[in-house]
Amino acid sequence: MDVLGLVKPAPIDFRRLFEASPNPYLVLEPNAPRFTIVAVNDAYLAATGTEREAILGRGLFEVFPDNPDDTGASGVSDLCTSLERVLRERTPDVMGVQKYDIPAPGGGFEVRYWSPVNTPVETSAGDIAYIIHRVEDVTEFIVARERLNAASTAKIERVKAHADRMEAEVLKGGAELKAANRELKLVC
């Protein structure tokens, strides 16, 4: 208690708050080497299947390179462009959903989709000391949407095939009716 008899709040342990946050965060130092990982929270480690000791102090793109088996991979390029924009414009950069595969524990890469936001943290002098990289793993949503689209496409194809069969039957029936009418005219 203080002199007025009020309870003093305990000091806030911001590191513990950061590490326990339910949202996945990395803290990047933008100076050489570029985009060094200087802090990571538990949610980011869980989302990427990495360990704190294995990624701290390493470059972001060293830890999370593009999938070499995906010739169309643009995750590194897209993220680097966003981080450069943050440094240049000194404002947060909200990226669209990105396909950015991550190294799988047993080797190879795991297909993942992310919704990232990159935010600058300035010093009192106005320099950018860090970039907070927050991501949301939206892989399940994207996969579910792709399945729904595939199911819808398959259903549309089935309906179209059924309509084509019905059209063929109607045309065949019409041709048979026409032939029967000709025969009736010949008889009458």
Description:
The protein folds into two domains: 14-137, PAS domain (Beta-Lactamase, 2-Layer Sandwich); 138-188. It has six helices and eight strands; from the N terminus they run H-E-E-H-H-H-H-E-E-E-E-E-E-H. It has helices spanning 14-20, 42-48, 52-55, 60-63, 75-89, 139-187; strands at 25-29, 36-40, 93-94, 98-99, 102-103, 109-110, 113-122, 128-137. The model has no long low-confidence stretch (mean pLDDT 86).
Provide a quick synopsis of the model.
By secondary structure, the chain is α+β, with helices and mostly antiparallel strands. The protein has 6 helices and 8 strands. Strands 1, 2, 3, 4, 7 and 8 form a 6-stranded antiparallel beta sheet that branches.
Q: Which runs of at least 5 residues are low in confidence (pLDDT < 50)?
A: none
Label the overall shape.
elongated
**Can you give the mean pLDDT?**
86
Q: Work out the helicity level.
A: 40-55%
| Overall CATH architecture of the largest domain | 2-Layer Sandwich
Radius of gyration computed on alpha carbons: 30 Å
Identify the CATH class of the largest domain: Alpha Beta
Strand content: 15-25%
Oligomer: single chain
Secondary structure class reads alpha+beta
